[in-house]
Amino acid sequence: MQIIGDIAQVAIALGIFNVWILRYNKSTGYRGGDAKNMREEFAAYGLPFWLMCVIGVMKIILAICLVVGLWFPDIARPAAIGMAFLMLGAVTMHIKVKDPPLKAVPACTMLLLSVIAAV
After folding, report:
1. Would you write out the chain's pLDDT as a tens digit for each of its 119 residues?
2. Beta carbons of 37 and 26 less than 8 angstroms apart
3. What CA–CA distance (Å, rounded) separates 79 from 49?
4. How far apart (Å, rounded) are the C-alpha atoms in residues 101 and 17?
5. Residue 117 and residue 28: Cα distance in Å, rounded?
6. For the chain, which residues make up each domain, given as ranges?
7. What letter would DSSP give residue 13?
8. Distance CA 83, CA 2 (A)
9. How many CB atoms lie within 10 A of CB 101?
10. Predicted TM-score (pTM) of this structure
11. CA angle at residue 74 from 68 to 76, to 5 degrees?
């Protein structure tokens, strides 16, 4: 089971780095509402810019902790639990703006992987 948790940790970290660093200012089919970048997505959810910054920093820090957790396992579980809460929030925002279910698939996947990494 440990190897599955490790794979989940790496997958979460890579996903977060991809979305919050590489694709931050890029359009994807999974952005909430009609957003073309991260800032527009948070605006579509009715959330302020400062909250986007806080959540982004939290996700990046938790993703780093998940990677570090491969060598220091005591860090991994709290990081995975924190990420699960943030992903639950992401799924909730997709529901709030009545996105089609397909747009919430990445957030749901990350939520599931976070739960797997936490157990």
Report:
1. 789 999 999 999 999 999 999 999 998 889 988 899 999 999 999 999 999 999 999 999 999 999 999 999 999 999 999 999 999 999 999 999 999 999 999 999 999 999 999 99
2. yes
3. 24
4. 23
5. 26
6. 2-25+33-118
7. H
8. 18
9. 9
10. 0.92
11. 50
